[in-house]
Write a structure and sequence with these properties.
Layout: H1 22-25, E1 33-39, H2 45-54, E2 58-61, H3 68-77, E3 84-88, H4 96-109, E4 115-120, H5 123-133, H6 145-161, E5 165-168, H7 174-184, E6 195-202, E7 213-216, H8 237-244, H9 247-269, E8 274-281, H10 287-302, E9 307-311
Parallel strand pairs: 1-3, 1-4, 2-3, 4-5, 6-8, 6-9, 7-8
Helix pairs in contact: 3-4, 5-6
Length: about 325
């Protein structure tokens, strides 16, 4: 499980609602900030690196693992030159878990707590991206790309488990990837808080890979079958009222509130710094959106930590 961490002193495409408190998210902007960017080949690390470059980060990609501690020392010795740094670390570094632990340990030993981003995507999406670009997967052998992806997931599992932010880029455009990353930057999470992300989704398009908790709300009556509501999203008053006025919706939210009141303090006590909650209905356009927004408002009132919302299927129509 992730330890408590705070920011301190050729891939495929990669948002959604930035949620409230963007100024709150940027409260650490004047401090030295180091990002370690990792994840699966083809999941969008190249696009993410370009984003960090656009934000003024010094980006280092594909350094041998043996050189990473020296880079950490240089970053610590010259904080003005390296105020914002993004370091890409993936299977090309060799022994990735060892290199990652060495890099993070070297930074933290010098008073800098890096923020770790991990990008992933579904297997069929990664295979399609490699097929379209004709690039070679770094671990692909005679067994093909699928076997290489499986091996890469195994190798990087330890890094994923330590990440502050896990993003599934399977359905993200470049603009959406930019917004998702931006919404997670500068979250200064107190030791007794979590960075919470709510994702609404449609089961017909797959469950978000990054979800820690998944709630299925397909048991509620569907506004899709009400002609005047069919074209409206869960962000509109009509759909919101239709969904939330159902007695089962109130009972569901009450049960979720009770579960989160029980588990969030326990997550914090175990050192967890992020929590991704996914709420799904059939198409991800009506019920899941309305309930995600309602739950986000409750979480913000409870002040468990910064809350962002991403409606994955909102722009499909």
């Amino acid at each position: 499980m992730a330890t408590t961490r705070r920011p301190g002193g050729g891939d495929g495409p990669g948002g959604g609602d930035r949620g409230s408190g963007e100024a709150e998210q940027r409260s650490g902007e004047d401090e030295q900030h180091v990002v370690i960017l990792s994840g699966l080949s083809g999941a969008g690390k190249t696009a993410a690196t370009k984003l960090f470059e656009d934000l003024g980060y010094v980006c280092e990609d594909n350094l041998p693992g043996e050189l990473l501690p020296e880079l950490a020392d240089l970053i610590a010795r010259e904080p003005e030159r390296f105020e914002h740094v993004a370091i890409v670390l993936d299977v090309r570094a060799g022994e990735v878990p060892v290199a990652f632990a060495a890099m993070r340990g070297a930074l933290e030993g010098r008073g800098i707590r890096p923020q770790v981003f991990y990008l992933e995507a579904r297997d069929e999406v990664l295979i399609r991206r490699y097929s379209e670009t004709r690039h070679r997967h770094p671990l692909a052998g005679s067994d093909g790309i699928a076997a290489g992806i499986a091996e890469e997931r195994r190798i990087l599992d330890a890094v994923r488990s330590e990440a502050d932010v896990v993003l599934d880029t399977s359905e993200l455009s470049l603009r959406e990837l930019r917004e998702r990353i931006f919404s997670q930057l500068w979250h200064v999470v107190q030791p007794d808080q979590l960075s919470i992300q709510l994702v609404s989704f449609g089961y017909k398009f797959g469950i978000p890979l990054e979800a820690d908790l998944v709630f299925d709300v397909r048991f509620l009556q569907n506004p899709y079958y009400v002609p005047e509501l069919r074209r409206l999203s869960g962000l509109t008053d009509g759909v919101r009222t239709y969904v939330l006025d159902q007695p089962l919706a109130g009972r569901f939210l009450g049960a979720v509130h009770e579960l989160l009141e029980l588990t969030i303090p326990a997550y914090v006590g175990e050192g967890k710094t992020r929590l991704t909650i996914a709420i799904g209905c059939t198409g991800g356009y009506h019920r899941s959106i309305a309930l995600a927004e309602e739950l986000a408002a409750w979480l913000r009132d409870r002040a468990y930590g910064p809350v962002t919302v991403f409606h994955r299927e909102l722009e499909r129509r």
